[in-house]
Amino acid sequence: MAQILITGGAGSIGSSLAKALLQIESHHVTVVDNLLTGNIENLPLDDPNFTFIKCDVNDFNEISSVMTAHTFDYVFHYAAVVGVERTLQHPSMVLDDITGIRNVLNLCKNTGVKRVFYSSSSEVYGEPVEIPQYEDTTPLNARLPYAIVKNVGEAYCRTYQEEFNLPYTIFRFFNTYGPHQSEDFVVPIFLEKALAGKDIPVIGDGSQTRTFCYIDDNVDTAIAALKNPQTENQTMNIGNNTAITIKQLAELIIRISGSTSKIIYLPERKRGDMKRRLPDISKMRTVLDRDLIPLEEGLMRMIEARKGVRKEATVAQI
Ligand SMILES: NC(=O)c1ccc[n+]([C@@H]2O[C@H](COP(=O)([O-])OP(=O)(O)OC[C@H]3O[C@@H](n4cnc5c(N)ncnc54)[C@H](O)[C@@H]3O)[C@@H](O)[C@H]2O)c1
Predict the structure, then answer these.
(1) pLDDT, tens digit, for every residue of 75-113?
(2) Largest CA-CA distance found in the chain, in angstroms, rounded
(3) Rounded to two decimals, what is the model's pTM?
(4) 304: burial class by Cβ within 10 Å (0-12, 13-18, 19+)?
(5) Is 217:288 a contact under the CB 8 Å cutoff?
(6) Closest by alpha carbon to 126, among 142, 148, 144?
(7) CATH (one of 3.90.180.10, 3.30.470.10, 2.30.30.30, 3.90.25.10) for 178-210+242-277+295-317
(8) How far is the CA of 8 from the centre of ligand 1 (A)?
(9) Which CATH architecture has domain 2-176+214-238?
């Protein structure tokens, strides 16, 4: 049985990965998380092959006690301070994540981990110099602390492979949405407002384009990469390559949720809002052997999941 550690595993992507690994494979999954933005209710706590340990990866004593007490075969390092507003308002907290990256990679190197999977971000490309963005040739234009930290994390992975022979796979996640996403992200914010019939706040004129990757596409690619030795020591964009403007996203959410909400426009952000983002996903397609989930279908799944949560809450109140 493979022993897998997911840091930041109580978060949206990590908890979905944990559940998928437990369903498809005979794995033991351990999640560590400091619950900064994660939610313990996302986790399969009743599964006998699952362990949760509250732990801050930036604290060496805490994470080393976990990683030396177990022998992990694979580590997914997903813990990070996230959310555009939070990362802009707390840049020094973001920079502290470099300590966590170093802690996790040192412990991987010293405890015989077979491969580390690191969640980098489309943010490393910064304001794009070309579209689409290719993993190995598009220049990295990262300027803000969150993007710089992701870039440093990538450098750690490549360096530890070259110097200490620790295999890695770097995932550059582009906007990923799904039912357990916190309201730090645009899709859950718009969806909640639409379902409540409240104004939907678009920043700027809404002409900035994004792509939206449904959580299952992200998780299935990560699991396919785990199984595929050719992804070792590779950097992969993980995202969807259908671009949509933020205004169109708001309109789509209003339409499919049958909402009466209106779109309102807020002043542009001074920093941190790229005009365009679009991944080249040829590498992702070589490991994920199916079509991607279209945005409209992913949004419908989120609406269904949210209705379920609301129904449960209403029953609990009675
Ligand atoms: N969701 C996206 O669109 C997206 C895009 C690009 C990159 N990413 C990256 O993917 C990873 C997962 O993001 P997510 O969307 O699931 O966000 P999330 O906030 O749901 O998950 C991050 C998790 O890390 C935990 N965490 C933060 N600091 C920690 C620390 N010091 N020690 C232990 N746990 C800590 C949080 O409590 C949370 O559970 C992150 O590294 C993020 O930067 C996400």
Answers:
(1) 999 999 998 889 999 999 999 999 999 999 999 999 999
(2) 60
(3) 0.95
(4) exposed
(5) yes
(6) 142
(7) 3.90.25.10
(8) 6
(9) 3-Layer(aba) Sandwich (3.40)
pLDDT in tens, 23-76: 986 899 999 999 999 999 999 999 999 999 999 999 999 999 999 999 999 999
All structural domains of the chain with their residue ranges: 2-176+214-238, 178-210+242-277+295-317
Residue 273: what pLDDT? Answer: 73
At CA 253, angle to CA 128 and CA 11, rounded to 5? 65
CB 177 within 8 Å of CB 213 = yes
The reply to whether 2-176+214-238 and 178-210+242-277+295-317 are identical in fold is no
Atom of ligand 1 nearest to the CA of 146: 43
Cα 272–40–55 angle (5° rounding)?
Answer: 75
Q: Which residues line ligand 1 (CB under 6 A)?
A: 7-8, 10-14, 32-38, 56-58, 78-82, 100, 119, 121, 173, 175-176, 182
The tokens describing 128, both together, are 């794009």
Which has the minimum average pLDDT: 70-79, 272-281, 283-292? 272-281
Two structure tokens written together for 134: 């290719």
318 pLDDT more than 60: no
Q: Which DSSP state fits 72? A: -
Instruction: Using the mean position of ligand 1's atoms as its centre, give its distance from the Cα of residue 174 in Å.
Output: 13
